[in-house]
């Protein structure tokens, strides 16, 4: 174990915390309704590390493993307020019924709560998400005007809720693939682009800009180029606001970040990894369009390269074939099914196979991630942390990190990083799992 450090100054979470959600569909409504059911004592926050996870402190012999929520100063669920934008209009209750994730009974139990959340007109442009058909959107002459409209929405909502703190998490659909360009390099270039309606500035970027200008932490739950660009990183540092992303790590990629580390740990080779999915919700329909699928494909393909490090292990991973497919299949709804066929080889090059069939519920896996990000991003803000929060890589398919380093994708390294960061904040010793102290003490007693 490392030596302990001093505890960081963290402002207590007094008052209400407003959660801003661009894109109120299956994930956002499942999250909001779930929080309300938990607050009513009708269910448990299963899947939330922040609520149900523990953290070991000190030596194993000390037996100190408090709940994370009792160890660090997190906002209480009772203090969460909600607001969102969506192209469908109506209320969060209408959106929850349309999403069809939760049972009629669970939606009914939260009807009064969800009906009070009116959805604000969204910033939307069909060029970026071609398969969606908006009912109500914001209209303005320039993208800068749209950003100012979003900023005013944020200010009005905070006043109405009596909130002094907020967090924004992008829950909207996957936008078309956009490569980082000149307009994304500096705040000045980006703001000029907003004024000139630059086509390389997508709606999600306008939300991120508005949030950061208002001092609101921003996390990106989709694979879009949104906040992971020099201009936004620069703005986050200037505004002293934390940012994180991108793309919630839920189903198939979650399994990859568990299985691939196993292969590397045991020095087993990989010939090929074929992944396919069927999904019938709105996300599946959006990803049926090639431009949006490419954005998702890049996100899903990156994990294996970073985990397996072919440059360091050329005999094992230099030439593996990796294919990802997502198929829109309406009868399945939000209940995604994925298949993975993994061709590996072991001792003397003999071939073996792993086959995985994961029948999951996309929004049920994403909702607790959303809750944790809200609570941890708020913690980061109160701890005066700004810019990229790499310690939250645990929750993302394409984790943000400093430009001079590579992102960590291994789920277990990510979890160690997250918990050690919490220990660091609270002035506790970081845990390396070396364990030599137990045996050195034992030898000392025998002498």
The helix fraction, in percent, is 40-55%
Mind telling me the C-alpha Rg? Answer: 22 Å
Overall structural domain count:
2
CATH superfamily of the largest domain: NAD(P)-binding Rossmann-like Domain
Q: What portion of the residues fall into strands of 2 or more residues?
A: 15-25%
Number of strands: 11
Summarize model confidence as the mean pLDDT: 94
Strand order of the largest sheet: 3-2-1-4-5-6-11
Cα end-to-end separation: 24 Å
Order of helices and strands: EHHHEHHHEHEHHEHEHEHHHEEEHEHH
Helix-and-strand structural type: alpha/beta
Output the CATH topology of the largest domain: Rossmann fold
State the helix count: 17
What gross morphology would you assign? globular
Detail the poorly predicted runs: none
Named CATH architecture of the largest domain: 3-Layer(aba) Sandwich
Largest sheet: 7 strands, parallel
Care to give the gist of this entry?
The protein has 447 residues and is α/β, with parallel strands linked by helices.
Tell me what the structure shows.
- The chain has 447 residues and is an alpha/beta fold.
- The protein has 2 domains: 16-248 and 363-425, Rossmann fold (3-Layer(aba) Sandwich); 252-359, Dihydrodipicolinate Reductase, domain 2.
- The chain is 40% helix and 15% strand.
- It has 17 helices and 11 strands.
- A 7-stranded parallel beta sheet has the order 3-2-1-4-5-6-11, with helices on both faces. A 4-stranded mixed beta sheet has the order 8-7-9-10.
- Helix 7 (143-161) packs across helix 8 and helix 8 (187-195) crosses helix 10.
- The longest helix has 21 residues, at 362-382.
- The radius of gyration is 22 Å and the shape is globular.
- The model has no long low-confidence stretch (mean pLDDT 94).
């Amino acid at each position: 174990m490392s030596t302990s450090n001093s505890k960081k100054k963290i402002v207590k979470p007094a008052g209400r915390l407003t959660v801003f959600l661009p894109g109120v569909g299956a994930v956002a409504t499942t999250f909001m309704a779930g929080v309300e059911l938990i607050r009513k004592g009708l269910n448990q926050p299963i899947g939330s590390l922040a609520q149900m996870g523990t953290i070991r402190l000190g030596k194993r012999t000390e037996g100190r493993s408090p709940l994370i929520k009792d160890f660090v100063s997190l906002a209480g669920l009772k203090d969460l307020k909600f607001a969102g934008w969506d192209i469908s209009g109506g209320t969060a209750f209408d959106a929850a019924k349309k999403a069809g994730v939760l049972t009629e009974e669970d939606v009914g139990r939260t009807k009064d709560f969800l009906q009070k959340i009116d959805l604000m007109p969204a910033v939307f442009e069909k060029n970026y998400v071609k398969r969606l058909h908006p009912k109500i959107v914001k209209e303005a002459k320039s993208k800068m005007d749209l950003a100012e409209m979003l900023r005013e929405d944020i200010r009005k909502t905070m006043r109405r809720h009596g909130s002094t703190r907020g967090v924004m998490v992008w829950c909207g659909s996957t936008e078309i693939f956009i490569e980082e360009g000149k307009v994304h390099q500096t705040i000045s270039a980006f703001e000029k682009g907003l004024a000139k309606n630059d086509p390389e500035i997508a709606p999600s970027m306008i939300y991120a800009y508005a949030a950061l200008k208002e001092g609101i932490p921003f996390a990106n739950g989709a694979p879009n180029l949104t906040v992971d660009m020099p201009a936004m990183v620069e703005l986050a540092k200037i505004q002293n606001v934390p940012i994180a992303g991108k793309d919630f790590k839920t189903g198939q990629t979650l399994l990859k970040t568990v299985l691939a580390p196993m292969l590397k740990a045991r020095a087993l080779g990989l010939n090929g990894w074929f992944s396919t999915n069927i999904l019938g919700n709105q996300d599946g329909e959006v990803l049926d369009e090639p431009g949006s699928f490419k954005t998702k494909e890049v996100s899903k393909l990156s994990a294996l390269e970073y985990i397996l490090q072919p440059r360091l292990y050329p005999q094992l991973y230099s030439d593996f074939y990796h294919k990802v497919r997502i198929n829109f299949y309406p009868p399945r709804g939000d209940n995604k099914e994925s298949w993975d066929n993994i061709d590996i080889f072991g001792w003397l090059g003999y071939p073996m196979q792993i086959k995985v069939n994961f029948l999951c519920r996309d929004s049920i896996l994403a909702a607790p991630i959303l809750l944790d990000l809200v609570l941890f991003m708020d913690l980061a803000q109160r701890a005066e942390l700004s810019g990229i929060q790499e310690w939250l890589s645990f929750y993302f398919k394409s984790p943000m990190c400093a430009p001079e380093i590579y992102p960590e994708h291994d789920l277990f390294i990510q979890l160690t990083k997250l918990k050690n960061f919490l220990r660091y904040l609270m002035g506790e010793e970081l845990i390396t799992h070396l364990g030599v102290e137990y045996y050195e003490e034992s030898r000392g007693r025998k002498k």
